[in-house]
Specification:
358 residues, alpha+beta, 4-stranded mixed β-sheet, binds dinuclear copper ion
């Protein structure tokens, strides 16, 4: 009888271990492994899945067994036996979980510290989280102007250190395929390191609830050859056009003012042609088409000019007044103001571009 019980327990134990092992090895839920750090993280995760599976089967198995075996028989009105306390059981269910938790803490800490170690020749990419997109600033010639990018392009097999900042509220910088995660916190720079090992298209996802646009706060990640990366960074250079002479103005200069962030238009407005992608203000896609009919007896040029100088004169429906700074009249000279208007007057409706407008 007793040896019968031991055999049964051994069989149950073997089945549980096998189930845990299969669950850990066959776990289909993880995305592609695209970094040197990913294998250690996956390994740890699979061990947790395996342990979790065994505990789940023990608890649920005992529950189902008890429901079937100890249910009330017909016409049985007696009380169940009165029992309490089992020192052996209590020690068992305290010691085993403590060992498991201590082991996982130790193993997790080891994996975590791996991601802190600097590597030789790191590329430092500055990351800014803002409502509701990420922007990336690559290392470049300090004597030239470069625009930021909303795509994260990285060379394969080159170590990267991200310096992460947040503009408004907390965001979470997460690239699932790299298995890295780091908080973006206003007022401080946080870091995370990675060595991309797989070329391909992935994404940066924000994992911290940061406002109404949180769900759409994801940007493309492209891991490419070193040559392609250099070419991409070069393509971000802004070559300033000649400033118009006093009393003159032109659209080229207007576009440069926006691209170079001289007046922070891109923080709120959206216009792919000038590489800006703000969402808190009205989109500029096709603005020239709308500008003609916004205010009675005001032509497009006057409307756009007034919208910059006196933003509360006409507020686009759906947006609050006073969101737009009221002091551009004192910040801009006539050349800048009229050049901006020149450029915006070129933004005619185009169905393909309008579809991108938010
Ligand atoms: Cu940014 Cu969620």
């Amino acid at each position: 009888m007793k040896s019968n019980l031991i055999v049964r327990l051994l069989i149950i134990g073997a089945v549980l271990l096998a189930a845990g092992f299969v669950a850990g090895v066959a776990n289909p839920f993880l995305p592609a492994r695209a970094s040197a750090e990913a294998a250690a993280t996956d390994n740890l995760f699979n061990i947790m899945i395996g342990i979790g599976t065994i505990i789940f089967l023990i608890v649920e198995g005992a529950l189902v067994y008890s429901i079937l075996k100890f249910r009330r028989k017909p016409n049985d009105e007696t009380d169940g036996p009165n029992m309490h306390g089992s020192t052996a059981l209590e020690i068992t269910w305290t010691v085993i979980p403590s060992i498991i938790v201590a082991y996982l803490a130790f193993a997790s800490f080891q994996v975590f510290t791996q991601t802190l170690n600097p590597r030789d020749g790191e590329i430092v990419v500055k990351v800014l989280g803002q409502q509701f997109q990420w922007v990336f600033d690559y290392p470049h010639d300090p004597n030239k102007q470069y625009r930021t990018s909303d795509t994260l392009v990285l060379p394969v097999d080159k170590p990267v250190r991200f310096e992460i900042a947040a503009k408004d509220v907390m965001h979470g910088f997460w690239i699932p395929e790299f298995r890295i995660k780091q908080d973006a916190v206003p007022g401080r720079i946080t870091e995370v390191r990675v060595l991309p090992t797989l070329k391909g298209d992935f994404s940066v996802v924000c994992y911290e609830l940061c406002g109404t646009g949180h769900g759409v706060m994801r940007n493309a990640v492209k891991v490419v050859d070193a040559g392609e990366y250099d070419k991409y960074v070069q393509s971000l250079e802004i070559i300033p056009p000649a400033r118009p002479l006093a009393g003159e103005h032109n659209a080229e200069w207007g576009k440069y003012l926006i691209q170079s962030s001289k007046y922070a238009c891109g923080g709120c407005h959206f216009l792919p042609d000038a590489n800006i992608a703000g969402v808190t203000g009205p989109s500029w896609v096709g603005i020239a088409t709308r500008a003609d009919t916004r205010v009675p007896n005001q032509d497009a040029r006057t409307y756009i000019q007034h919208s910059i100088l006196y933003p509360n004169e006409f507020v686009v429906p759906g947006y609050p007044a006073n969101l737009m700074p009221q002091n551009y009249g004192t910040l801009m000279d006539d050349t800048d103001l009229n050049s901006l208007v020149d450029y915006l007057l070129l933004q005619k409706d185009d169905p393909a571009k309008a579809a991108q407008a938010k």
